Amino acid sequence: MVNQQASTERIWEWLSGIPDPEMPFLSIVDLGIVRDVHWEEEQLRIVVTPTYSGCPAKSHIDASIRNTLLDRGIEHLALETRLSPAWSTDWLGDVAKAKLLAAGIAPPMASEVPMRKLEYRAWSIATPSCPLCGSASTTVRGEFGSTLCKSLYVCGDCANPFEHFKCF
Amino acid sequence: MNAVAESNEQLSQYLLRMGDNCLILSQRLCGWTGHGPTLEDDLALSNVALDLLGQARLWLDYASSLHPTKRSEDALAYWRDAHEFRNLLLLEQPNGNFADTQVRQFFFDSWHFLVLTALSNSTDEKVAAISTKALKEVDYHVRRSSHWMLRLGGGTELSRSKLILALEQHWNYVGELFEMDELEQEMHACGIGCDLGALHAEWLAYVNDVLGKVELALPSRTPFQSGGKRGKHGEHLLSMLMEMQYLQRVHPGAQW
Predict the structure, then answer these.
(1) What is the pLDDT of residue A92?
(2) Number of neighbours of residue B90 by Cβ within 10 angstroms
(3) Which of residues 80-119 of B touch A (CB under 8 A)?
(4) Would an 8 Å CB–CB cutoff place A52 in contact with chain B?
């Protein structure tokens, strides 16, 4: 191929156009799972860190990355899955959080300090504000929601149920 | 067998234990899908199953990469017979009622948390990475199953009596969780594994603390059932595998 190599900035832009299959209003870049993009001579290397071990969207995302880049003429792609450091919702930027809120999903708060020692912990006292009316008086209804990354809450003021993108 | 092949074989056996624990419990929990007592708990049990299935894939994929015949993670799941599985006996126990399922989960989650914490410092980089990743998920699981001990124990007379029975019934399988057999000892000695015996006191303290909050205690007798880690399973695993492996064995290589 005689095409000039696309700049990594361009490639990041293309990747920003790939939606998350479960929450299509977020891109895979918004989610913070694309960790690195660089050329190794003729080959492009992309490092992806999965969200949850069991995320069923992972293989779909990998295929979307391959197809999107193939459409742009990139044939030599090394797609690396890297577990460490583990993905955290702290990697979601402000843009992603605003998109979640706009979709009626309470964005993650700063992730809790992981439990270092095995000790009893009640469900977190801090609850997310209602994404619909803004009330702080909300209670947890389910530790998981429609996908692995979300939990279910109900608002004490407007009485609407809503999903929260879990801190992780 | 040369030294490298031998140590790979041992590590692969060790990884099978970690992976099979996740796989077998995940398959068990899938049995609740569509049958949970409430929609929220149906979702939660299915999602815990999904987390564990993801973890099982990571462990089995690593195990298969070391295996001399390179059986894929799918082949490991679908083409091994019961005696080749290395999961703890606790995890193959039937779902029973909701209290049975939560007690099995509570005993396992609290143990799993301690083991993964220890393995996060493994000298094997991949073992450490998988453990660190899985630990974040298990942190969430253990909070959930501990919370259920309080809800069931402090709920109605019926929920409490069922919880007490479930604690009695699952207690027999707990000894195996801390058993240091030859493989565990060797993995610990080379820095890959951990000392399960050393985790026992911390586990007991935690479990007693949680149960103590609703004035319950562990049975006093010594747990005696073991063998799953060495491939000696009960009849429950057989019927579960028949269901889990049926499709792949009748239609080898079938895909969605």
Answers:
(1) 93
(2) 27
(3) 110, 113-114, 117
(4) yes
What was the pLDDT predicted at B61?
A: 94
Cβ distance of B147 and A53 shorter than 8 Å: no
Please check the confidence at residue A44 and state whether its pLDDT lies above 90: yes
A143 versus A116: the higher-pLDDT residue is A143
> Considering CB atoms only, which of B128, B136, B206 is closest to A119?
B206
Give B172's DSSP letter.
Answer: T
Q: What is the distance, to the nearest Å, from the Cα of residue A6 to the centroid of all Cα atoms in its chain?
A: 25
- A147 vs B251, higher pLDDT: B251
Which domains, and CATH codes, for chain A? 8-81 (3.30.300.130), 92-165 (no CATH)
CATH number of the B3-250 domain = 1.20.1260.10
- B41, B54, B128 ranked by CB distance to A52: nearest: B54
**By the 8 A CB rule, do B104 and B90 touch?**
yes
Reading the block at residue B61, the tokens are: 């994929």
What residues does each domain of chain B span?
A: 3-250
Q: Print the SS3 string covering A19-39.
A: ECCCCCCCECCCCCCEEEEEE
Dump pLDDT digits (tens) for B47-65: 999 999 999 999 999 999 9
pTM of the full structure: 0.93
